[in-house]
Amino acid sequence: SHARIGLVGLGVMGANLSLNIADHGFPIAVYNRTGAVTDAFVASAGDLAERLVPAQTYEDFVASLSKPRAIIIMVKAGGPVDAVIADLGPLLDEGDMIIDAGNANFHDTRRREAALREKGLNFIGMGVSGGEEGARHGPSIMVGGNKASYEVIRDIIEAISAKHDGQPCAAHFGPDGAGHFVKTVHNGIEYADMQMIAEVYGVLRDGAGRTPSEIGALFEAWDKGPLKSYLVEISGKVLQTADPKTGQPMVDVIVDTAGQKGTGRWTAIEAITLGQSPSTIEAAVAARSWSSEKATREAGQALFGDDAVETMPMPSDATLEKALLAAKLIAYDQGFKILIAASSTYDWGIDLAAAAEVWREGCIIRSALLDDMAQAIRAGLPHDQLIFAPTFADMIREGAPALRRVVAYAALKGLPIPAFANALAYFDTMRQGRGTTDLVQAQRDFFGAHGFERVDGGAGQHGPWAGTVSHS
Ligand code: NDP
């Protein structure tokens, strides 16, 4: 029998995505480099095995697909994707399509799309978020590439995606790398979101001496309010979990050095290339990098010890909640600005509201706020700023004093909160009509004759610096 779709790479994500596709009634051809994995996968698929068409060679795999062929690749990002494309390409016919569903760097997606297009093949870059559970029961899906080829598989993709009020959390964002770029920015925002929650945990733990289960209960309560989100929910659960081995809180037995696979870093790098500076995301990437220097941090603690200058009472739980909400909105504001800049640079025509909409369910950053964000974006963002939209401007007005209080408290107490501090600095910069770059411009003109613009008109002006240097 012929399947409309096939999948290569039966690892964690590929296996679950295949079962999800089969579960929605679509027969699917499956292939894995290590053949034994394919056999074990089919053997453990239960009733769904009847919709799986396993193959042990690429030839059999390709032969089991109806035309135009649609093949999802779900292997390790990077070299392995190129290796699979090199093996599959020669077996495919004009009009067939390859869909890379891994966490690709969008530059690779653009390169692969161009190379395959020359050969008459279609290449779709498809970001998938939601981890193992999402892949099996409904991920959030961000698609880029030829729109007409996407239309061929759209029913399958929408069927397997998460739903928000019945609407699929899957969308096509533009040609070539647009989908993978939206996924990358999703991950960047995810980094900031996670870091900010961890910073609140740090303030409560090291400032107020709260236990993990107390903090977890607070997060659980916040998950019923405006902060309702997957990440706050799981943080609450994690903090209230005990280590089966020692009985201690689970977080207390976990070494505080965080891993990263690169997508958060890519967001920061691409943003800077685009002239953006998503300082909250950069701070989250930095916090993970710094965390890996554990021995250095321990030496620093021995050297500098407690550096607190406490002169402020601990902010209340309600203040922390408002501060987290404000900081989070600022992180999303920065994330959306990266998408706006990339869409214009690469001519993608990304529908920003659609990004907020596909993130409402299925993905790691899903939250109650995303529906409001989508509506605010549809209504038009003043100056491309999410936090300037009326609903969010009101929230920021209410949350900013809380954010200020938390940042001040942490600074005096000697607690690091890089993402919160950057969120506040960004907000204060964006609400200051006259900044301090006039002096920077003067400095640049003084030492390099770079010129400046005068407030009373005229670009390329110079200051009367000659003879003002004193060598005392
Ligand atoms: P796994 O490590 O579980 O699976 C890797 C798969 O890649 C295996 O099927 C492996 O085959 C195959 N593979 C590796 N190298 C090659 C190669 N050179 N040629 C052919 N096949 C190869 O990975 P995941 O399922 O976790 O991740 C897959 C992709 O999905 C990655 O891009 C990842 O970043 C992305 N992703 C992962 C998420 C997660 O939560 N895990 C969430 C969202 C995206 P073999 O059995 O032969 O080794």
TrEMBL record:
Pathway: Carbohydrate degradation; pentose phosphate pathway; D-ribulose 5-phosphate from D-glucose 6-phosphate (oxidative stage): step 3/3. The active site is at residues 183, 190. It is an enzyme of class 1 (oxidoreductase). It catalyses: 6-phospho-D-gluconate + NADP(+) = D-ribulose 5-phosphate + CO2 + NADPH. Its EC number is 1.1.1.44. PROSITE patterns: 6PGD (PS00461). The keyword Transcription does not apply. Substrate binds at residues 103, 129-131, 186-187, 191, 261, 288, 444, 450. The keyword Oxidoreductase applies. InterPro entries: 6-PGluconate_DH-like_C_sf, 6PGD_dom2, 6PGDH_C, 6PGDH_Gnd/GntZ, 6PGDH_NADP-bd, 6PGdom_BS, NAD(P)-bd_dom_sf, Pgluconate_DH. One of its GO terms (molecular function) is NADP binding. It comes from the Bacteria. One of its GO terms (biological process) is D-gluconate metabolic process. Gene3D superfamilies: 6-Phosphogluconate Dehydrogenase, domain 3, N-(1-d-carboxylethyl)-l-norvaline Dehydrogenase, domain 2, NAD(P)-binding Rossmann-like Domain. Residues 179-466 form the 6-phosphogluconate dehydrogenase C-terminal domain. NADP(+) binds at residues 9-14, 32-34, 75-77, 103. Keywords: Gluconate utilization, NADP, Oxidoreductase, Pentose shunt. Catalyzes the oxidative decarboxylation of 6-phosphogluconate to ribulose 5-phosphate and CO(2), with concomitant reduction of NADP to NADPH. Belongs to the 6-phosphogluconate dehydrogenase family. Homodimer. PANTHER family: 6-PHOSPHOGLUCONATE DEHYDROGENASE. This is 6-phosphogluconate dehydrogenase, decarboxylating. It comes from Celeribacter baekdonensis B30. The lineage of its organism: Bacteria, Pseudomonadati, Pseudomonadota, Alphaproteobacteria, Rhodobacterales.
